[in-house]
Amino acid sequence: MTSRLILGVSLAVSMFANAVFAQNKIDEMSLDRWKQLREAERHQMNVAEKYYRERQYKIALGEYEKFVTLYEKSEGSSFAQFKWAICQIHLKKLNTAISDGFQTVIDYWPDSPDAPNAAYYIGRCQKEMGELKKANKSYLQVVSKYESSLAAVYALSDMIDLADAEMNIEAKVTTWKKLVYDIKRTPGDANNLCVQASIQLATHYFSVGQPVDGVASIATTYKDNQFPYHLWYYCRTPIGQLAADPKTKDKADKSADGCVAAIRERTPTDLTKEEDKKNAREWAYYIADIQAYSRRDDKVVEAYQASIKQYGVNDLTLQRFGDWYKSVQKYDEARKLYAQFANRPEGLSQIAWSFVQQQKYDDAVVHYRQAAGLDSQNQPKWNEAIAVAYRHGSRWKEAIDAFTENLKIDAANTEKWLWWIAITQRDGGMYKEAIGTFRQCTNFPENTKQMAWCHRALKEWNESIILYNQVTASAPDAPWAMYQIAQVREASGDNEAAIKAYQVVCKKFPKDGHAAQAHAHLQTKYKINVTLGGAAED
User: Fold this and answer.
1) Euclidean distance between CA atoms 520 and 516, whole angstroms
2) Cα end-to-end span (Å), the chain
């Protein structure tokens, strides 16, 4: 339950506008109503709200009741009774909340702003108690009697949950449509829930091959230039799911065709303005992507070729077209497109990366070297790309050679290249060499952590522990480092020392996740119970 904040009586009413009564929550009082309260009434409401904020619901309940008793004719009486009922919910007395709280609001103050909210909460309580049929009936009454209220919006939203629990698709669609087409979208929760419903309804229609209805639902929320992107964004997944199953492939094609048609219908034809040309090209990408999700390769090729014909060739279009070819394992076709890049080094880089993806590392290096020849001022960038390609192929020495070349020509980034060399030595099993290189790095504690790990790999347990002890001086890393020490003790076969080390983690850092891991490990491996609660952190 969202509590509302009420400031002390000494503050002027104008102070409440931003900090207190947001008017888009059904359990909050509007500023206009607050202004109608007398000073004494505000004071009593403040007292009740203070205890409510502090979650002292029994005391708050008494204070709300006192308000109703003292100020029965006040504008705030129905609200106090309403909040009294909400306190009963927090006290797990849902039947009391309904019969003595919310129903009382409806009976005694039927025309108050709290009456529709109370009616909604009756349904909500019934829902929480598992009385789903009663809840649905109550929600329907809210929607029928208080159609223009925010409570009706909440009721409809809850009805979707009920329909979902009963797997009643028809009821969900009916409720979604009510939210999408019948409810006025006022700022706040009403708008948010209607927007959510429009997306859910559209997604449903796309998933059953009804694109016209899905497009219409999206269009209620996203207008003009926002529409193509959001249509693309929300139609992709259902189309992809349909296309994956031969039994529903026809529906995928139908939804894809409908969405493509909707985007084309909105695509600018007059391209004299740069913004319109930019949008047209971008929306053409959405069309190609939708066709890709529908798994119709010929339609994808057709879409990209049409884009190139209409809007001209550029590297981004070639990139997307080529990337799609790679996604369907047509690497040679992709490379033909990358070779057309106006930015030749970047095109060669894309070709090289495609070879890396195919595990053809020598071919990749050849193309990276060609790119470097055209872009000599960025030699370190290409050396790094070459090294990364070799790393993918576990060709550690060649990768180290490429990083070492950068160490010679790019002194400004010495730390970066030392780190890469050390990491590559570590990954290649050259632990002693890696330790020496990590020692040259200055990024404590990360370099020390890595040196400790390398000593562990070499089974040099004492050296590893010495380094982890150094890391414990770094406050954020101390629990991790002490846990590592325990693991090293255990790996070395010294179980007694390992147990003590795990217990130290639990004692010193009871609130850290590593203490929980140590606790669980002591229980499962050593059958030792350690009490975490109440231990003091050093």
Assistant:
1) 6
2) 37
Q: How many CB atoms lie within 10 A of CB 396?
A: 18
Is residue 18's pLDDT more than 70? no
Q: How far apart are CA 26 and CA 4, in angstroms?
A: 10
> What pTM, to 2 d.p., does this model score?
0.84
The rounded distance, in Å, linking the Cα atoms of 232 and 223 is: 14
Identify residue 69 by its one-letter amino acid code: T
Q: What type of residue is 42?
A: R
Identify whether the C-beta of residue 262 lies closer than 8 Å to the C-beta of residue 238. Answer: no
160 is a domain residue:
no
Residue 466's identity, in one-letter code, is I
Write down how long the chain is. Answer: 538
Task: Give me the CATH number covering residue 5.
Answer: 1.25.40.10
pLDDT in tens, 304-319: 999 999 999 999 999 9
Q: Which residues contact 197 (CB under 8 A, 6 or more apart)?
A: 156, 157, 160, 175, 176, 179, 180
Residue ranges making up the domain that contains 516: 474-538
Residues 77/78/84/86 CA torsion (nearest 10 deg): -150
User: Quick one: average pLDDT of 150-173?
Assistant: 96
Contact indicator for 471, 445 with CB cutoff of 8 Å: yes
Q: Does any domain span residue 521?
A: yes
The answer to whether position 285 is within a domain reads no
pLDDT tens profile 490-508 = 999 999 999 999 999 999 9
Question: Distance (Å, rounded) from C-alpha 356 to C-alpha 371?
Answer: 15
Domain final residue, candidates 78, 97, 129:
129
What is the CA angle 494-500-501, rounded to 5?
Answer: 85
Answer yes or no: is 57 within a domain.
yes
What digits encode the pLDDT tens for the residues 216-264?
999 999 999 999 999 999 999 999 999 999 999 999 999 999 999 999 9
CA 70 – CA 237 distance, rounded (Å): 58
In this structure, the number of other CB atoms found within 10 A of the CB of residue 103 comes to: 15
Distances 191 to 194, 225, 264 between C-alpha atoms, Å: 5, 20, 28
State the SS3 of 116-143. HHHHHHHHHHHHHCCCHHHHHHHHHHHH
Task: Enumerate long-range contacts of 381-388, CB under 8 Å, 24 or more apart.
Answer: 383/409, 384/420, 385/349, 385/352, 387/420, 387/424, 388/356
Contact 157, 122 (CB under 8 A): no
User: CB 395: neighbour CB atoms within 10 A?
Assistant: 18
CB burial string 18-47: b at 16+ within 10 A, e below? eebbbbebbbbbebebbeebeeebbebbeb
Instruction: Report how many domains make up the chain.
Output: 2
